[in-house]
Please model this.
Amino acid sequence: MSYEGRSSLLKKRSKKLLRLRILGISALRRSPRPKIRKVLWFFLSRKNKLTYLAAISGVFSSPALAHAFLDGAVPRVGSEIPAAPSEVVLHFTQGVEPDFSKLEVRDSTGASVTTGPAHTAGMKEDFAVPVKKLPPGVYTVIWHVTSVDTHKTQGKFHFTVTR
Model:
């Protein structure tokens, strides 16, 4: 083989190795153990890359739905409202188990102003409690909820009735 033939062969081989390195497959050529080579080839082949990424993203995205966090409320958290509401509704990021959850509204003296039991309102993520006719003042909403996946969360916030 002439020098020119070897030169072109080396160029072709180096281009191929460069492509393999860019794709992350350079470890396949160097692996001394056939089993490791097969495992690496499985995870790095084009056919299985999407499956592998989907499985990994599914594993890491599940914990985001582990608790029912407060997403919104009527009346809004920290708001000043001109008219008293007939009920307080909390919206959570996940469904709530009403039998294992509690929602209470208290006035500035700490007395409860709820008139009935807390219940789900419309959607399973909404949790509501009816309240008395509220005079002007500051009110505290205290909640302890158990989500449908049995995780517990709690919190409180204030709102003000101005008239």
Summary: The CA atoms of residues 99 and 119 lie 9 Å apart. The domain at 66-161 is CATH 2.60.40.1220 (Immunoglobulin-like). The first helix runs from residue 3 to 22. The chain has a mean pLDDT of 79.
